[in-house]
Design a protein that fits this description.
The chain has 137 residues and is an all-alpha fold. The chain contains six helices and no strands.
Amino acid sequence: MDTQPAASFGALFAGLGILIFIFFAFIVFFIFCSWKLYQKAGKQGWECIVPIYNIIVFLDIVKRPRWWIILYLIPFVSLVAAIINCFDLAKAFGKDTAFGFGLLLLSPVFYPILALGDSRYVLQEENILLNEIQEFK
């Protein structure tokens, strides 16, 4: 009896199991980074895991109007909106355009840097300063 095909299938399934494990580990890490990023922006961490609502909260973080969620439902337009929001996210945390390109092109590297690094959410500080200036007048 030939055991070669059985061994081949076993190796294939073992390889697939490893790939699935790596995939889920990456997803869990990305959720963790999103959780930290939302907390840095003054939002609740759990808001990043609720479908649709996480986009609404993200739009609040990057200070885009909520009607932009409609743009995410339109093919190709959603891609443009996502690109714009990469740069908006970098700006929201006080980073420059180069960091926005990093978020766009190397998200698995730059997103954790933003979430787990020492960056601070600066748009909230700008809103507080604007409110203080308006109250002073």
